[in-house]
Amino acid sequence: MKIVKYIILSLFGIAAVFPFLWLLSTSFKGAEEIFAYPPKLIPTSFELGNYSGVWSAVPFGKYFLNSVLIALFTCLLNLATASLAGYALAHFDFKGKEFLFLLIPASMMIPKELIIIPVYISVLKMHIADTLAGVIIPFAVEGYAIFMMRQAFLTVPKELSEAAIIDGCSPFKLWFKVMLPLTKPTLGVLGLFTFIGSWGDFLWPLVVLKSESNYTLQVGLSYMMGTFVNNFRFVAAGSILALLPVLLLFLFSQKYMIKGLLSGTGK
Amino acid sequence: MSKRTPYYFFLPALLFLGLFAFLPFLQVIYFSFLNYNIFEGSSFVGFNNYVKLFSDSKFLYALLNSVIFLLVTPVLIIISLMLALFLRDTNKVTKFFRSLYFLPVITPIVIAGIFWKWIFAEDTGILNYWLSLVNLPNVSWLTKYPVNLFSVMIVTVWRGFGYYLLIFIAGLVAIPKEVEEAAKLDGATKFQQACYIILPMLKPVILLVLVMSSSAAIKMFTELYILIPGTPLANKTLVFYMFKYAFERFDFGYGSAAGVIIFILTFGFSILNIKLMGGNNENS
Amino acid sequence: MKKVLLYILPLLCIFLSCSKSTGKTEIEFWTLQLSPTFDNYFKEIINKYEAEHPNIKIKWVDIPYDAVIQKLMSSVAAGNPPDLVNLSADFLSKFSGMKALADYKELLPDSLLNLYLPNAIEQCTYNNKITALPWYLNTYVLFYNTELLRQAGFTEKDVPKSFSQLIKFIRLYKDRTGKYAFFWNIGKDSYLPMMLGSEGIEMLNQSLTKASFNSTEAVNTIDEWIKLYKEGYLPKECIIKPGSTVIESYQAGQTALVFTGPVFLKRIQENAPAVYKSTEIKPAITGKTGRHELAVMCISLLNSSTHKNEAAEFAYYVTNAQNQLKFCKLATIYPSVVEALKNPYFTNDDGTLEAKARITGANELPFAVKLRKYLDHPKFDLLRDSFDESIQNAALGKSSTKEALDNAVVEWNDILKDNE
Predict the structure, then answer these.
(1) How many CB pairs under 8 A join B and C?
(2) Assembly ipTM
């Protein structure tokens, strides 16, 4: 039985990792064929030239920083807002709760491409167009985050809140000091997802930004693939560089999630 | 605490969603009743756009395809849940596999597209090569409908299972160990434990994954755009239809109407699921 | 209250940009994916222009292809559109009939407008209005892989010059080697209309009211290609891959010929050095008329602009002979100004492959026209999609070539009926 389990795990593993390995090897390839078929995984020579090339071809460092700032603040906004709302939905009863709860999947179903134009008009009116704030604010808060946090808080007994409040504890302090830490694993996952979502966002930053100094990494990478510039090795190197923060965040958040688990759940 | 505290807690979320999701959507609904060319102006046409939509066979096919595409949801749930059960403990091996499965989530879609186009290539792709080894004929993975729709679904599942895996693991981990130990002591097999203890306790998480993955399935755009951009509109999904009319034909009112239909479809589907799984009750 | 401040203050402090009003006239100019290749070029010519026109400020925004329409529509809807937009001339007909684009005839003197290549200006003219200034041009050449040809027992003399020769070559090559000679898109962004145009077979009438590509001649010509596909002489993906992928098979060393612009030589050089080494150039394949396709990139002025005269002046500056010559030395593209084309840069062969490609293309320019007349109709995308689908249907055997084309003609006539 165990062998079957490991065979399944490995098959999925190969399918999962192969494109990434190909990307990695392409980013190191020198003057050899990169589109050869069948694809060659091991480069004949390890070249770092593609990495330095892409770093200087576009203002990679600046774009990187912009993406990091945007992603971090998006995370903050999303986590804070979602956990506040999720907690209220999970632990309190109030009029209109059902309706507000239904608003969440409703917000998830709205096709983003369609609302880009009205949102852009709002952003323009608020004078945050072509700024990092303009990229962050409109789409920072996402419905699924509230949903997730609500489900997480549901695993903590409601009675805990009720008891604490009867004892005179302020709800906000309760949320911040007690409830939130209990949902660390979910917070970790949500933080990771929000970061990835923001990091990989292409369309909205493209529509709202005009000044090159505000561009994000994804927008910058898209410039590496045009009629006049189409060095796929550079694209590969740039993609790997763009992947790294997310990968690191993934590994970090795993540790965080585990710590959250070990620190006890509701005891 | 006052009676109004929960409302205060909800307020920031409501503010953001209201201003940047619902308000724009209301505007889009308004646009759907217009004949709106952004470069020229608009005129009120009532339900005209909707009537046109439902009398266009391409739209109805796109609707069908979007519904077919919803099949990724159960597939994703099953695969992610199964893998989550395998990988719920935390040790070097599980951490390794979790990281591996996460790579498709962060692999840039363009790269994934190139890779999968190779695999599905009709004359030179790996899949057809394997088929030829067992004397089976070539499959037109990307050129024939409806096979190509399923090929895109495979890519969507590939991109998503590592993502939902994490959500399930987080959920599994929240299940108190005592409940499972009690079941074990009672003599339940691993399988029985899974079915009768774990699954019911995971209901809220399953519901979450269901809503997330089904909304993602309906809104799916990039995979299809990269893999089979050349297929006719009738073989594509609703989002493509909306996109084409709004942004390529400059018929923003008509595209908005399509978008409203997309919303009704997906929202309806979610509500159905939520009611079915009793999502508003706490789990016991 | 504290929570609110917690959210907003840091954001306000770091991210709000202060907009300074400089009192100058700002002209916003959008280009299509020219960065980073032309970054220095633009900085240079913009600085020069601003120095010569101290009360003008140019804001240059470069936009990746994929999002230009959404960005444009958002800006127009929001009321802050750019003044000038770089577009492909193929796209201009979409705007004809709308009052979206300004007429350069009203803004620039004829003496300036006459400096452009006549066939380039023609592609920018709709309803007698010059809706865009031609900028850089592209045309087609034939790349062929000498190594693959040699392996198949062919020499440079065997490289096809006409479409009928091409068809024969494709068959012979595969029969000899079992591999595909040629890839081009026939079922999406189909090249077949271009071929028909070069063969002198009209797809629709002059006044754009009736389609005619189901004539016996057209059906037979198209059927040759459908037969090639059905009999396995063309890669299966020819019917679904978009036009932008035409070079992929050649680049991967899988096919021996490719029909594309000389500007793509650089891509082959970077991504497939071995293929590049074996690559040679010949003039584009043509049909009975010997005509080549001309692709024009141009600069349009939006009617919403509040500084039309200044914008037109700047557009002329960008497209003048001097600047275009400088521009076209940075990539294998061609200027649209007659004087610039006369420059020896486009005739002197210094022995490099680039030079050969450049000269081959340059020689074709005077005879290059818009071969796909259907692009003149504002609903050209509907027409194109309908034709693409008919090819797919015929190629997949869902209907005979004649049936598929007949159906498409009916669709076309329907679409063309709604002509204003």
Answers:
(1) 61
(2) 0.86
